[in-house]
């Protein structure tokens, strides 16, 4: 096994939604950055969708990111000077139009802090950090996408037999994700089939919970964790679990919003048993059932 390569390869893309505030997303989510390109109107689309762009034969919706997170919407006079951040996220190619691109910077994801109370109820921010003495807000792209492209309800509720449910119910399951929408989806999937679970919002707390449970002879059997998290990311969490003697029997399922074979390959390299591109409830539940078979 190798040590997580995430912190070597995952930087932050800094960009502007307003004149004075800097925002960021992890570079693993970024497929490409292009200057403004003409858009085609999409009838009956969400109010934040500016239209559709076509690049190298692929057509995708373009969202006014400032408007989507509650800032002043773009106007026609400024759009021609804007940039489109193209992301490949949750199995969907989407462009986010922003007022300006600052730069890509290296980032120590362990130094990202929880959003301060002074930011109010801006639920689209998952963390804050400082770059060259400027406050940078890390955006929750999954939550943003869920507001604009709501998931098909059928994808959130798994279907399984009574026998399969009873196989899962005795297991001690830990869900880890820094995104509120992802935690809600994970919780809904297990609540709908009456399978109990524990939940954590970050990797370090999850690792502490697992060690404490193992010390008390009540260990977790299944860990379901996001990959891209500030602090201890999913790769590092999986690596630490597999290299801790009292935890190494845990069945690890990593999930990611990145539609990338690279993410899946890295997940296996650090010791994860499975890696899924989130979110499809039946895929997740059947991965858990494979974990149950391992423990049986």
TrEMBL record:
Pfam families: CheW (PF01584), Response_reg (PF00072). InterPro entries: Chemotax_regulator_CheV, CheW-like_dom_sf, CheW-lke_dom, CheY-like_superfamily, Sig_transdc_resp-reg_receiver. Gene3D superfamilies: 3.40.50.2300, CheA-289, Domain 4, SH3 Domains. PROSITE patterns: CHEW, RESPONSE_REGULATORY. The modification 4-aspartylphosphate is found at residue 226. One of its GO terms (biological process) is phosphorelay signal transduction system. Keywords: Phosphoprotein. Residues 9-150 form the CheW-like domain. Residues 172-293 form the Response regulatory domain. PANTHER family: CHEMOTAXIS PROTEIN CHEV (PTHR47233), CHEMOTAXIS SIGNAL TRANSDUCTION SYSTEM RESPONSE REGULATOR CHEV (PTHR47233:SF2). This is Chemotaxis protein CheV. The lineage of its organism: Bacteria, Pseudomonadati, Pseudomonadota, Gammaproteobacteria, Vibrionales.
